[in-house]
């Protein structure tokens, strides 16, 4: 398995970890590729272990039911909690990553993509909300 075989979210975490290490200058320039390879292998091992644990825990129980037997009890579906995951799309995620890397580079402080996104929401949500309302009021799209 290669890092590129992992889900995009896992690849993003690995890339952000490496970029943060580089931004913090906590590396030896001669060993940058070796460090990147180490991080990739660590994420691969972690992903593989988590996947195996998940499959063990949630693999479907194979029960055969013959005619005339009652169906096995199935636990009722619980109402799910609101999601903490928000779909932004690959392009917007990439834009946010680039912004956080630029802020880190120019400020000399490590700023993660999550921190940058949280800052945008905390500082500009009211302006964005008002602007969007006005744009939608004046658009012909319903």
Mind explaining what this structure looks like?
- The longest helix has 27 residues, at 32-58.
- Helix content is 61%, strand content 0%.
- With 142 residues, the chain is mainly α.
- It has two domains: 1-59, no CATH class; 88-142, no CATH class.
- The chain contains four helices and no strands.
- Keywords: Plasmid.
Number of strands: 0
The count of helical stretches stands at 4
Tell me roughly what share of residues is in helical segments. 55-70%
Task: Please give the alpha-carbon distance between the first and last residues.
Answer: 47 Å
Which structural class do the helices and strands define? mainly alpha
> Secondary-structure element sequence?
HHHH
Total discrete domains? 2
Spans where pLDDT lies below 50 across 5 or more residues: none
Q: Biggest sheet: strands, sense, closure?
A: none
Radius of gyration over all CA atoms, rounded: 23 Å
Q: For the residues shown, what is the average pLDDT?
A: 75
Query: What characteristic shape results from the CA principal axes?
Result: flat
- Give the amount of beta strand, in percent: under 5%
Keywords: Plasmid
Topology:
Layout: H1 8-23, H2 32-58, H3 90-107, H4 113-137
Keywords: Plasmid
Q: What are its keywords?
A:
single chain; 142 residues; mainly alpha; 2 domains; 4 helices; 61% helix; flat; plasmid
Gist?
This protein is an all-alpha fold and 142 residues long. The protein is built from four helices and no strands. It folds into two domains: 1-59, no CATH class; 88-142, no CATH class.
């Amino acid at each position: 398995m290669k890092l590129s075989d992992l889900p995009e979210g896992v690849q993003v975490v690995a890339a952000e970890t490496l970029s943060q290490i580089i931004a913090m200058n906590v590396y030896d320039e001669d060993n940058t590729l070796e460090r990147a390879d180490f991080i990739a292998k660590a994420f691969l091992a972690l992903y593989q272990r988590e996947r195996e644990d998940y499959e063990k825990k949630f693999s479907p129980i194979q029960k055969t039911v013959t005619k005339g037997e009652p169906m096995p009890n199935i636990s009722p579906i619980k109402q799910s909690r609101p999601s903490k995951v928000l779909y932004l799309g690959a392009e917007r995620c990439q834009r946010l990553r680039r912004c956080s890397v630029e802020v880190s580079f120019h400020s000399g402080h490590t700023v993660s993509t999550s921190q940058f996104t949280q800052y945008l929401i905390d500082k500009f949500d009211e302006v964005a909300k008002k602007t969007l309302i006005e744009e939608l009021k004046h658009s012909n799209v319903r």
